[in-house]
Automatic annotation (TrEMBL), chains A, B:
Family: Belongs to the nitronate monooxygenase family. NMO class I subfamily.
UniProt keywords, alphabetically: Detoxification, Flavoprotein, FMN, Monooxygenase, Nucleotide-binding, Oxidoreductase
Catalyzed chemical reaction(s): 3 propionate 3-nitronate + 3 O2 + H2O = 3 3-oxopropanoate + 2 nitrate + nitrite + H2O2 + 3 H(+)
Family matches, as InterPro entries: Aldolase_TIM, NMO
Short name of any one Pfam family annotated for the protein: NMO
Protein name: Probable nitronate monooxygenase
Segment forming the signal sequence: none
Gene3D superfamilies in the record: Aldolase class I
GO molecular function: nitronate monooxygenase activity; nucleotide binding
Organism phylogeny: Bacteria, Bacillati, Bacillota, Bacilli, Bacillales
Cofactor: FMN
């Protein structure tokens, strides 16, 4: 039976289908709970949340379901704060601030990213069932603390080398984030542009190189994709874009609309919104910022926040970061429960058609 | 049964496995004949051949097998001959000519690419069973002439839009060339960098958009990849890199060795060798030429020919165009017959494991 894998056993879920931790809104408590309630693994996209926000979200999920769910975090990386790059990009973005009616002088953020320690303490205190993370690996002390509380730990790798490193660090499973995937690249050992590997090549190579289960991510939108990932050797799949257009998703309606009408040629990799390469739907901000030398992540992310928030309120999709993978042509609008049911039926059909 | 598809029926082959038309040596008559003899569809990589060379190759294949085979051609595109770019790149490449002991003044090629009409006439006169092509679509007159001789015609698409255009032009099947694929990008309707779509997203989207069979290409190296492509909806697969390291392949031994020892991070897209973006194993020539504004394809291809040929003779892999897809970690050294047999067994295993 295709749905019985090491991933379903370890996670205690019915189907090896994980909803990706789309930070910044889409992966809301409502979406996570709906996915878990329907038999998949819902994920809170907590990368940008404070400890307090995360705790509230965890409790909301627990009110809505008693099934397992995950929290997804961003592992902090060293970064430079270059005053010169900051003032150049601020200067350049002044035109957008004006268009959006924001003060010409932006607030200089007090903090570029939320405190990771604070987030981790909530994960441990609340005994979150599953922690997934991206942008690096966790130190031995965190890993020990997580194991001590029986938290299942899932790392993110964009290359075989990263998967091996994560396995050595003690994670229980690893997500193979292929080139097709939407949102931020999880690359942490290579130059990002040398770690862009399509799923057809990445998944089987990673499966051969590690003993822990591999979870395929990138471009998977329907049962055909799930069946393909499993036959490539993955023991589970992680879908972001497919869940982004669900009713319970916290994604901006314009973001959802853009995904629903996008083609296979609509997305691109950009550093414009956050300073870190991510795949999203091409728009004016991405195009006009393409030639600017940007501050590091998370500095640039903090610097564009006011613009993105104002654009959201004013319905200006040309300034929104509309993350999406390459599978947008197959996106659908329905509830998360209906989507999980459709995915399961389609996977069964795809599997039986082969034989 | 997974191996019975519209592709096997139309092509008259046992397995829906096509060997890609790797021009410039690898896709030799010996390789094509061995693949066809083993039940797949062998292909002559004729893109750079004169009509006469193509005729000789077709006759060699026919001496070795009476099974169907294909010829792969490059559809000519408009290009500019910029004297300025040519002299700048010649100036830049003088250092390599010196290292290789070539005269400092390169021969200015009389012709940048072989005559397409001449190649096509051989295809028609010899009644080649299958013609596959890339870089564009064929005009209505060619399509009519091919149909008149019962030639099965296969186009190459890197986007859904290109697949639809090819279907409208009358091709019998379309290759979905995903981001993972080695060698030249077949893109002809978009900017090449907006047509880089991973197989997990490209294959099902293309299958949904056309009525003709889709043949998946890019990163497929073993039975898991074949099974994945078929469950995504493809009715056949095209493998290049997997056949490049076969005994019968005409690839340079250093090229084969590089593929066998490459990792998932070894390849890149480059215009350095031909002026057209292609995926190959990163080497010194690619790295050092990255910042040069190059002449169009096929001008740059003609300008690097002497360097590549001398490098081949002298065993200098730093100047060879070592095309390869992203699946190199799974490459193997065996005969084409053995590879086909292994692929079939592995596909059966992958299919049965799902159910």
């Amino acid at each position: 039976m295709w749905s019985e894998t090491e991933v379903t056993r370890k996670l205690g879920v019915q189907y090896p289908i994980i909803q990706a931790g789309m930070a910044g809104g889409p992966a809301s408590p409502e979406l996570a709970a709906a996915v878990s309630e329907a038999g998949g693994l819902g994920t809170l996209g907590a990368g940008y949340w404070t400890g307090e926000q995360l705790r509230d979200a965890v409790r909301t999920v627990r009110r809505l379901t008693d099934r397992p769910f995950a929290v997804n975090l961003f592992v902090p990386e060293p970064y430079e704060v270059s005053e010169e790059r900051i003032s150049r990009v601020q200067e350049r973005m002044r035109r957008y601030r004006k268009e959006l009616g924001l003060s010409s002088e932006p607030q200089f953020p007090k903090q570029f990213a939320p405190a990771f320690e604070e987030q981790m303490e909530v994960v441990l205190e609340e005994r979150v069932p599953v922690l997934s993370f991206t942008f690096g690996k966790l130190g031995a002390e965190w890993m020990q603390a997580l194991k001590g509380r029986d938290v299942v730990v899932i790392g993110t790798a964009t290359t075989v080398r990263e998967a091996v490193t994560l396995e050595e660090s003690g994670v229980d499973m690893v997500v193979a984030q292929a080139f097709e995937a939407g949102g931020h690249r999880g690359t942490f050992l290579s130059r990002f542009d040398e770690a862009l590997i399509g799923g057809m090549a990445l998944i089987p190579a990673m499966v051969d190189a590690v003993r822990i289960p591999v979870i395929a991510a990138g471009g998977i939108m329907d049962g055909r994709g799930i069946s393909a990932a499993l036959t490539l050797g993955a023991q589970g799949v992680q879908l972001g874009t497919a869940f982004l257009t669900c009713r319970e998703s916290g994604a901006h309606p314009l973001h959802q609309q853009a995904v629903l009408s996008a083609t296979d040629e609509s997305t691109t990799l950009t550093r414009a919104f956050s300073g870190k390469p991510a795949r999203g739907i091409r728009n004016r901000f991405i195009e006009e910022m393409a030639d600017v030398e940007l501050p590091d992540y998370p500095v640039q992310n903090a610097l564009t926040r006011e613009i993105r928030q104002a654009a959201g309120k004013q319905g200006r999709s040309e300034f929104l970061s509309m993350w999406a993978g390459q599978g947008t042509r197959l996106s659908r609008e329905m509830t998360a429960e209906a989507l999980i049911q459709v995915l399961v039926k389609e996977t069964e059909k795809a599997v039986s058609r082969l034989t």
